């Protein structure tokens, strides 16, 4: 916790040193949210309902998607998919490994991106207001929070596995583009897909629907049995990802 706080403080000072850049980055994030919200609103003004999703429930999916997206952006997404290969090529990664800190933690959370922090707080406030106004039961909210954590762990594990490939061969931006394309599936209701893809994406590659999972539980279309399954899946993929990452790390060749 102390190390994470120190990294966060240093990154905040660095990122706010150029205030116009920080301001316009926040404006860009806000426009991203507003544009997507307007797109969804335009659809549901003309189509009353899409397989159970309507103007009353679709905000929960949109807000959930952005909570997860901003959490990833603040923490490990750029570190694992974009900065790691740069550190390896420049020789900076040797310093990561020589420090008395868990190398996965240091790699995944070296840069804390505060450009996503303010939009995240706004989205959380909107989500809390929506939950309160919809009078959702506390135990459902608890399950929802558990599933948010589970979705984060699944996406972290999947990203960790892909980033490990850089210990064998350099892939500058391709890996980031791959996982970002997969994550875009989170922006669409899982129910809108054909049955084959719904089953495959849920039971085989839940990473593609991690944003759907908490939202569907919150509106009451998911069971506690499904919650238990996805929790077990998160534990398994996390263990596999850590073991795979350390195995790949053995192939890392220091520049020294």
Model description:
The chain has 256 residues and is mainly alpha-helical. A hairpin with a 2-residue loop joins strand 1 (49-50) and strand 2. It has a two-stranded antiparallel sheet. Helix 3 (58-74) crosses helix 11 (212-218) and helix 8 (138-163) packs parallel to helix 12. The protein has helices at residues 2-15, 19-46, 58-74, 77-90, 93-98, 103-108, 117-133, 138-163, 174-183, 195-203, 212-218, 224-249; strands at residues 49-50, 53-54. The two termini are 31 Å apart. It has twelve helices and two strands. The chain is globular and about 60 Å long.
Question: What descriptive keywords fit this protein?
Answer:
2% strand, two-stranded antiparallel ribbon, single chain, 256 residues, mainly alpha, 12 helices, 70% helix
Low-confidence segments, ≥5 residues, pLDDT <50? none
With strands numbered from the N-terminus, the spatial order across the biggest sheet is: 1-2
Percent strand equals under 5%
Mean pLDDT: 79
Shape: globular
Task: Evaluate the radius of gyration.
Answer: 19 Å
Topology, number of strands: 2
Give a short account of the largest sheet. 2 strands, antiparallel
Helices, by number, come to: 12
Report helical residue fraction.
over 70%
**Intertermini distance:** 31 Å
Secondary-structure-based class equals mainly alpha
Q: Element order, helices and strands? A: HHEEHHHHHHHHHH
Oligomeric state, counting identical vs distinct chains: single chain
